[in-house]
């Protein structure tokens, strides 16, 4: 393990709030959990510099201005800007200008936190113009962090998940306000003809769009490739047959569009981690 490093000028106003939380072993293994959360009014000399600290950090600017140095890039932060970083990487952030930097922060870790970070980081480090409802989500975490009861850790997990979900939905590549007509038409075609052979070449012949743009735009707006959409639909229908009919595995494979039963079984097991027959026995009513 690399040596951790932290330096800081913790110059903030007396009304600033910070809450440090020590989770139970159960929460550390199975939940998202708070390490520290708070609302601080950072003065002009405030800064924090650290590296190799096992924590993820989300900072939301309510008012004022700050700057962040992360992964060799400098980001300027204004009202409603938010950053989400991995504190194992070097970071330096500070107040900018002559006014206070009013910010909310959350240090957290736990189950799936790395995956949330990687998904956000694929679109960058900063979320510009985040919704001011972030304040309410942070306040829920601050309030719950000071409670000690049988529900508090589960609620903290929920509130961190809510915050992460809002951040990811607001990120540029995931915030889809419309789907182009041609992508809708291709999606509808796949849903209607899922039993048939469908490839990018076939779709490019049927619709006025190149394979390259089709592949890129379909993934952007639908969230998966045409192949994976078709596969998902086939498996959904197969599961319905397995759970609510007595037809054979061979017949199911044929009905949902697989030429060979062995191919269907292999694909199904790769996706569900059990064979179709085992799945049927598990869900048999």
From TrEMBL:
**InterPro entries per record:** AraC-bd, Homeodomain-like_sf, HTH-like, HTH_AraC, HTH_AraC-typ_CS
Record has Transcription regulation as a keyword:
yes
User: What are the record keywords, sorted?
Assistant: DNA-binding, Transcription, Transcription regulation
GO MF annotation: an example: DNA-binding transcription factor activity
Question: What's the superkingdom here?
Answer: Bacteria
Question: What SMART domains does the annotation carry?
Answer: HTH_ARAC
Q: Which residues form the signal peptide?
A: none
Protein name, please?
A: Helix-turn-helix domain-containing protein
Supply the source organism for this entry. Answer: Gracilibacillus salitolerans
Its lineage reads:
Bacteria, Bacillati, Bacillota, Bacilli, Bacillales
């Amino acid at each position: 393990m690399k040596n951790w490093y932290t330096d800081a000028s913790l110059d903030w106003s007396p009304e600033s709030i910070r809450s440090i939380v020590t989770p139970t072993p159960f929460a550390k293994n199975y939940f998202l959990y708070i390490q520290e959360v708070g609302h601080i009014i950072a003065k002009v000399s405030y800064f924090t510099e650290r590296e190799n600290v096992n924590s993820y950090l989300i900072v939301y600017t309510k008012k004022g201005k700050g700057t962040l140095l992360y992964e060799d890039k400098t980001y300027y932060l204004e009202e409603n800007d938010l950053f989400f970083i991995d504190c194992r990487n070097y970071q330096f952030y500070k107040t900018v200008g002559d006014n206070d930097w009013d910010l909310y922060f959350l240090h957290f870790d736990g189950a799936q936190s790395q995956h949330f970070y990687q998904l956000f980081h694929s679109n960058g480090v900063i979320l510009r113009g985040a919704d001011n409802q972030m304040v309410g989500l942070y306040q829920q975490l601050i309030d719950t962090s000071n409670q000690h009861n049988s529900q508090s850790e589960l609620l903290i997990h929920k509130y961190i998940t809510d915050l992460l979900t809002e951040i990811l939905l607001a990120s540029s590549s995931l915030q889809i306000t419309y789907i182009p007509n041609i992508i809708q038409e291709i999606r509808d075609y796949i849903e209607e003809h899922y039993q048939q052979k469908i490839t990018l070449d076939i779709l490019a012949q049927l619709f006025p769009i190149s394979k390259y743009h089709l592949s890129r735009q379909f993934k952007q707006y639908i969230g998966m490739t045409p192949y994976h959409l078709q596969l998902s639909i086939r498996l959904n229908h197969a599961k319905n047959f397995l759970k609510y009919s007595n037809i054979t595995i061979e017949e199911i494979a044929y009905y949902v569009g697989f030429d060979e039963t062995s191919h269907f079984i292999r694909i199904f097991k790769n996706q569900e981690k059990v064979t179709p027959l085992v799945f049927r026995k598990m869900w048999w009513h």
